[in-house]
Amino acid sequence: MFPQGMRLSQRLHKKYIFASKALTWTTKPTNIRHLHDIRPPISNFSTQEPAPVSKFPANILSRASMAPKPNTEKKNRSVMYSFIGVSIVGFILWFRSNSKKQKLPFSAQKVWKEAIWQESDRMDFNYKEALRRYIEALETCDRSHVEPLSDDYTRIELKIAEMYEKLNMVDEAQTLYQELLCRFFEALNVPGKVDESERGEVLRKDLRILIKSLEINKDIESGKKRLLQHLLLAQEEILSKSPELKEFFENRKKKLSMIKDVNKDPNDDFKTFVSEENIKIDDQGYMILDLEKNSSAWEPFKEEFFTSRDLYTAYCLSSKDIAAALSCKITSVEWMVMADMPPGQILLSQANLGSLFYLQAEKLEADLNQLEQKKSEESDQELDMGTYIKAVRFVRKNRDLCLERAQKCFDSVISFAKRNRKIRFHVKDQLDPSVAQSIALSTYGMGVLSLHEGVLVKAEKLFKDSITMAKETDFNELLAEAEKELEKTAILKAARKENLN
Fold it and tell me: Which domain of life is it from (predicted)?
């Protein structure tokens, strides 16, 4: 039974908003650089210091000066010539490798530097003049026939888009992002257009631009469609290189072919992915990557790929398609284990998956309410009782199943943290706050489930614990939600006490 005044369906709209925020907490990995910094600028001179020349022992040099051997001078000269020859070859190779990367003409470089100067604080952030200079640099590249897929050309376009955004010319920026995405998408789909060794890096740039464009996107449906297109392109690339992912799809296809009952859930064998088998802990209690896994197929766009998948999940939630969001998130968590993603991100994704299961339970609870309302409005003659009972049983079973899976997701994170207590003490030492956030979110989730079951004392304790952890890690979004739920719990406790008296 639901506590009075706290039916799940009444909080459905707020949960949409909170869950969509929660699912984007993982979409900003700290190791993704600014978009215009796709590749660091190449210097014309090597900054690497020459290796120190080994010193000869003093006694050898002194002996050589006192008693020189025949042909010593000739041998020293040949060694010197050999050294000079090797140095020249090394310099030529270095110059060739850098000349391939540096495709920006000198005239464009000059204008580029002027544009950077204009947007700096020294020029009072003159974005309008900087924009004009960047456009001039791009036109210079066009006249010099610079490859539009090159890093330097793309970097100028991204700076132009950045200036548009800073000047509140959002439509112009979005148009430029779309042109870039179309160019990369077409190049990746045309055989031979992009060298096989460069495909991963081009996909990485494509996904970065996609993520940036979605930050200012206003049309949910078009954004969702565009996101899916580019995700499928990256997925095909991974599939062609990853035997694990190929096996995953084959197993899923086999599982679906074996299911004959349309009402049966293909994920009935649902299991959580947070365990010592998937997340490795060293002797000091730190979570470490499993370097034995062959996750090279996901490189170098692994972070961008999972960030994009999280965005797709958030888009599904925005369009109130919880089933699609849930399906996407289940797959994402399993793939994160295959790709050997940072353990903290796996933990947080597992906690977010629990939130999605709870959202689906709320949706099904609302469906139950509609069925009950329909029964009360129609007479027994108009209502097919057989169909009604079957529908109620189906919806109720799925609601209970979602609540059970939500509890499994939250409990797996909390249990993992309890079994490996040292990770709690290393949270502040880690750059990634996902570990602490996943524990706080799971504790909050268990509190919501306890509130749903009417166990108010337990819910109150869990909400207080999640508030403490949220404050420790500056998890402000969760802190606000947990404080609201704690306040509701206190009101319900007071009402229950009054009714007993």
Answer: Eukaryota
